Amino acid sequence: MLQGERVRLRARERDDLARLWEFNNDLAVELAGGGDPPMPQAQARLLAEFEQDVAKGGRDGMSFVIEVDGQVIGQCALFNADETAHTCELGITIGDKAYWGQGYGRESVRLLLKYAFRHHNYHKVWLRVHAGNERALRAYVACGFREEGRLRAHVWSDGRYDDLVLMGVLREEWQT
Ligand SMILES: CC(C)(COP(=O)(O)OP(=O)(O)OC[C@H]1O[C@@H](n2cnc3c(N)ncnc32)[C@H](O)[C@@H]1OP(=O)(O)O)[C@@H](O)C(=O)NCCC(=O)NCCS
Question: pLDDT of 21-61, one tens digit each?
């Protein structure tokens, strides 16, 4: 649905689930992504969640798989939309580690920002990232995000505490 130079963002399909399940069970990917402590995920559970979601009806929301040369390499989304303040949160995981550090992340984030500002008329997009996630921080800064705050020693990840960094980009900053 959203086409960049090398990256395509499109809706998640049933056929994608086996690959996404691999990503969800990769400890290095889970740790890099932050969030909850890593836990194993059964493929049946992922399928059941997908089926439940589809059965609910309505629209697919703002979640995408990231595709490169016809291969799914990860997922990204806009969520936690505040329809009064016109803000939303951004999340991204490139689950195939072979694709880390090659610019696919920043291209996906740029596509999401354009989608957020031009198509949804959001005023600000924000995100949370572990301070130790240097690769992510650099990619986000390259896309125009700035650090807005930091919760000290706020997350426990891989045997140690880390700061949680809040970053954001305003529409007018993105436009320039
Ligand atoms: C974070 C993520 C989306 C970034 O996408 P990406 O395609 O890997 O990143 P990019 O290639 O666009 O940019 C990576 C930047 O980090 C640098 N980098 C690459 N490998 C690095 C490493 N091991 N350590 C530190 N920096 C590194 C690159 O040089 C580049 O910075 P620069 O342009 O200033 O030189 C992706 O790596 C990913 O999904 N990682 C796993 C999950 C995760 O961390 N999600 C984010 C949670 S907030």
Answer: 999 999 999 999 887 889 999 999 999 999 999 999 988 88
pLDDT one-digit tens code per residue, 123-136 = 999 999 999 999 99
Q: Does ligand 1 lie within 6 Å of residue 142's CB atom?
A: yes
Domain residue limits, the chain: 2-175
CATH says 2-175 is which class? alpha beta
The CB of 95 under 6 Å from ligand 1? The reply is: no
What are the angstrom distances between the C-alpha of 167 and each of 21, 50, 88, 153, 164? 28, 30, 12, 17, 10
Backbone angles phi, psi at 87, to 5 degrees: -125, 160
- Ligand 1 pocket member 80 (CB < 6 A): no
